[in-house]
Amino acid sequence: MSLSLVTGAAGALGADVARALIGRGDDVALVDREQGRARLDALAKELGPRASAHVTLEDALARGPVDSAALVAGAWAGGAPLHETKDDATFAAMMDSNVNTVHIALRLLLPGMVARKRGSVIVVGSRNVERPWSGAGSAAYTASKAAAVALARAAAAEVLEHGVRVNAVLISTMDTPANRAGMPKADFSRWVTTASAAGVIAFLLSDAARDVSGAAIPIYGRA
Predict the structure, then answer these.
(1) DSSP calls for 109-167
(2) Any idea which fold 3-219 has?
(3) From CA 32, how far away is CA 75, in angstroms rounded?
(4) What are the domain boundaries of the chain?
(5) What is the distance between the alpha carbons of residues 16 and 197, in angstroms, rounded to a whole number?
(6) Distance (Å, rounded) from C-alpha 199 to C-alpha 201?
(7) Which end of the chain is more exposed for a tag (fewer CB within 10 A), N or C?
């Protein structure tokens, strides 16, 4: 039985990725922060005995060798334009949430995958990576997602000859309750559904995508 890992599993996208992986027959280790423990436990209960909830990567990795991982954990913050920013708090928070989490996960996951000569990892980026001007007003977020995707693509080149794949997905606005609440006048039909994005991620983690590595796949919908 294949063991997959999902970080940020308590969120809307992470939960749908976990559902997709369970649906294809994987065991899934769900990882999120202690603050999301109630949602994490509820998701594990929904998914059944093949899912387990963890608040640290180390705890999740103790469950067994991970064959595939979706690194969904991250955060968004807008804030003031950079020339109006008074301190480094937003930048530090975005780098911690969106880059450091990816770096730590890759550092912990890749050695085992390289040793076993197999494995696949997906890093969740943003459309802002390819269209940084669309991140005006959220430059720190845009920079952090660009760094995370660059990290993933560089790591992909390092592990390619070891049979391990690393890819990224670049997602535009997702149709989540939080985004609907924050942008109530938007045309939600133009947004990317979390189920759609989860399907792309599950495909990239599968053997059907065995020849894809180092890619940054756009998932833009019509947003």
Answers:
(1) HHHHHHHHT-EEEEEEEEGGGT-GGGGTT-HHHHHHHHHHHHHHHHHHHHHGGGTEEEE
(2) Rossmann fold (3.40.50)
(3) 12
(4) 3-219
(5) 9
(6) 5
(7) N
Q: What is the pLDDT of residues 9-55, one digit of tens each?
A: 999 999 999 999 999 999 999 999 999 999 999 999 999 999 999 99
Q: 192-193 and 51-54: which strand pairing?
A: unpaired
CA distances from 214 to 25, 64, 149, 217 (A): 26, 26, 9, 10
pLDDT score for 80? 85
Across 103-131, b (16+ Cβ under 10 Å) vs e yields eebbebbbebbbeeebbbbbbbbbbbbee
The CA distance from 76 to 172, in Å, is 13
- What does DSSP say about strands 3-7 and 68-71: parallel, antiparallel, or unpaired? parallel
pLDDT of 73 reads 97
Nearest alpha carbon to residue 98 among 168, 36, 149: 149
pLDDT category at 79 given cuts 50, 70, 90 is confident
Average pLDDT, integer, range 70-86: 92
E strand map for 59-113: 68-71
Residue 187 CA to residue 174 CA, distance in Å, equals: 12
Q: What is the pLDDT of residues 137-179, one digit of tens each?
A: 999 999 999 999 999 999 999 999 999 999 999 999 999 998 9
Rounded to the nearest angstrom, the gap between the alpha carbon of residue 6 and the centroid of all alpha carbons in its chain is 8
117 alpha carbon, distance to own chain's centre = 23
